[in-house]
Amino acid sequence: MGMYELLDIRKKYVGAIVKKEDFEIVATVHEFINREVMPRRLDLEGGWHHDEDLAKKTIEEIHKGLVDLGVQRAFLPEEIGGLGIKSFITQLMVQEELARGDAGLATRLGCLWGCLNLAKMAGRMDLLEIFGRKACDDKPHTACWAVTEPQGGANVEDPTQHGRAIRTIAALDGDEWVINGVKIWPGSAGEADIVYVTVCTTDPTKGEEGIAYIYVPPDAPGLSFGKPIQKMGMCYTDVNAEIFYDNVRVPKEYRLGGPGKDAEIFHNNIAAARLPSAATAVGVAQACLEIVLEWTKERKIMGKPVREHSLFASIIGEMALKIETARAYYLQAAWMAEHPEIYGPVGSPAMHARCSIAKAYAADAAVWVANKAMELMGAYGCAYEYCLEKCLRDVKIIQLWEGGQQRALLDIALGFYPFEW
Q1: Which of 95, 145, 180, 302 has its C-alpha lying 20 to 30 A from 238's C-alpha?
Q2: For the domain bounded by 5-136, which CATH number is listed?
């Protein structure tokens, strides 16, 4: 990749909203992706024939490389062995850089950080000690955020439902929570070795008061999994499967906050989670742009590179326009999320709307960029070796998850006025 100032890692992000020392890890990840991931990114899904052994070996080796760089523990508290980087904005930039190499890598690490930082948000250092310290050792680890359910889908995440759509039940029996229910589609399902952060209800009729966030150990008796869902993209880097809770018992202190508090954390979490999705989508779009810039430089029509013809150049310009605006907006929304004293809690209707705008716009932009890149490259865009068709397959599910674009549009409208189904 030649040097383009717009792609310069030290210039493409807004330096005014992140500390210089925090930014160093972003540059480190960028260089790691170029050096270690780009030459092997097709192996992350096992090559053309989806060789599962090759995929898992590649994922393990690349994840271990990120562990050795300190990336896995970067955003975890120093008290448990993490690097203690507190900036959410820095985390998002790291996720964008990871997604340049592979969207599933970004999702894999993002889930780990999100699951453990929930405990930090709730002031539960005891839970971080129990579940988080292991994630700061020298081995790759994963965690699972279990929210959506077969019968409810995105309704579980719908703020107007107030938790009434949740069907995974947690009943207190003495000093233990007994959990029964089914989850589907969460990332790292079946392979998470740190924790399954499970959204439950003590009683669907209680609404917000019934919402319960419970930390479930991976080896809890009664916890089992369906077969991994075979998807069009993120085939191995982000594993999705059904999770079955059959009288799963955990200590009562593994509940995150308690009545009311868990609902507040849940709504904040649902809103904030849209920003890593936006960053991941932008990372994939950036990868598409880089692929097409190089291909259109080498491909010639009438003796000059096709990218110098006005039709091609204008499409490349529009690709860059969408990427730059998507990045700028998710960074803006993240800065707002870090300043609740000005903009209110991230789960408030206005901030939820802003996070939804960031995710919806970035996901739409990324799918558009991937499609246009394929059109510019013609049949070559469909060729596996160029990795463009992989980007398109990977990014589509980002557009669909967290309720899809339609759920996001409803949440944006809720930022202006209240309504219910």
Answers
A1: 180
A2: 1.10.540.10
pLDDT, mean of each 10-residue run, the chain (421 residues):
78 81 90 97 94 97 98 95 94 98 97 95 94 96 95 84 93 98 93 96 94 97 96 94 98 96 95 97 98 94 91 96 97 97 97 98 98 95 94 95 90 94 72
Structure tokens at 219: 């080896």
The three-state secondary structure class of 83 is: coil
Domain ranges of the chain: 5-136, 144-259, 264-414
- Would you state the CATH architecture of domain 144-259? Beta Barrel (2.40)
- For residue 32, give both structure tokens: 């790691």
Of the chain, the end-to-end C-alpha distance in Å amounts to 50
Cβ neighbourhood burial of 5 (10 Å; 0-12, 13-18, 19+):
exposed
Residues 6+ apart with CB under 8 A from 377: 291, 292, 295, 296, 299, 386, 388
Which residue do the tokens 């994630």 mark?
135
Contact 323, 282 (CB under 8 A): yes
Q: To the nearest 10°, the Cα dihedral for 303, 308, 313, 317?
A: 150
Structure tokens at 391: 């980007």
Query: Class assignment of domain 264-414?
Result: mainly alpha
